[in-house]
Specification:
By secondary structure, the chain is of the alpha/beta class. Helices cover 34% and strands 23% of the residues. Helix 11 runs parallel beside helix 13. The longest helix is centred in the last third of the chain and has 17 residues. It is globular.
Amino acid sequence: MTLLLDPNQPLHFIGVGGIGMSALAVILADRGFQISGSDSRDTAAVRDLRQRGVRVHRDQSAATIKALCADMVRAPLVVVSSAVPSGNPELEAAHKAGLAVVHRSDVLAALINSQPSIAVAGSHGKTTTSTLVATLLEASGNDPTAVIGGIVPAFRSNARAGQGRLLVAEADESDGSLVKFRPSLGLITNLELDHTDHYPNLEALIETLRSFAAGCETVLANRDDPVLRTHFHPSVWWSIETTEGADFAAIAVDEQGDGTVADFFEAGVCVGRFCLPVPGRHNLSNATAALAACRLQGIPFADLTAPIQSLQAPGRRFDFRGSVEGRLIVDDYAHHPSEVEATLRMARLMVESGRSPLPIPPRRVVALFQPHRYSRTAEFMGPFASALALADLVMLAPLYSAGETPIPGISSELLAHETRQVRSDLAVHVAADLDDLARQVCRHCRHGDLVLVMGAGDVNGLFERLEPSLIA
């Protein structure tokens, strides 16, 4: 049963600074709901919420719940994410106080299911695709509401409370909660086994996405993905490989390190050409999906060609952070072998074509990677090694556990060994910690190197250590 949000019901978010939690808090606060939260971190998201008048408590304790109950006329609805453990003292206090507790997906479902909506699901490309959809809708005058798992450059935020009829949301499959969503349009980018802490095999993931698809009025899916092509029967297909069997297709006519030019087809007929300023075939697929989603909303293709030329990927997706003595530092959220491979191939295209969106043409590709989760690293050790072997130099941060219990033998050292097995001529260094990693960047990298900092853990803390010499 879908949660019904009552504007008179206060909501309190435990861990409100998280990327998914903060987006919901922003939208509800902007819609006039009484919002509070707690987070020990002083992040940009937390500071933004405070500027919006949201009270954010610095500690997650029983005292916070006690203070809320004393201050509010009506008891708050407590919102948690899967990142909040059952033993969290604030959560335990909420239960003891008899407060209703819901998962963040219940709140997101309440938003998605209450208005025309586009929910973007899939193993890879969700954040980028949902960012592109929301950006194109806004640029074409449709003023969408957006709940995104990354910072949308056009909004400078991960959320936007628009006045238009459409809502765009990223539908995360990691815990299976996306089955609660009933969007007007469900968009599925691809499917590949991940989140092995939740899914024992690919079949379990397929069943979850099938349940999601069954709840969508219309399903738009990627025909180029073999799993989707085999196991799904969507209403609409898109492709970047062929026009046959695809309702929408984008066929590249020029692919360079600084972008792609492609012809756009509808039902096999070319309706125009567009220039995408973000390189890489995975980004072409994401953009094609976004264009298709907008066309399904009745937006003329002619209204989309101009804004697509200035599209930007979301934060932490090949995000140029600056240079250190000519070393080009790029931040990327890649944490699955397919994502690492796609990011490195895009970087190689920049080197080989001599063209890139970076200040100077890169000469070498340096993969600086932090493995994320023991379960994922153990499951995909070989594919990670093969992907990293595409680089000219590899540096590994210590494995980020994300709260998992260590698996004996699974480590960055083992990944380094496996990567050397793939390419014996490849230099692979393992850092002791982030401070050591910063020293290794200065020691092993040189002018013209494209240093790709990849991972979903705390590896982006490297930038603070490079900050004195980081030149934007």
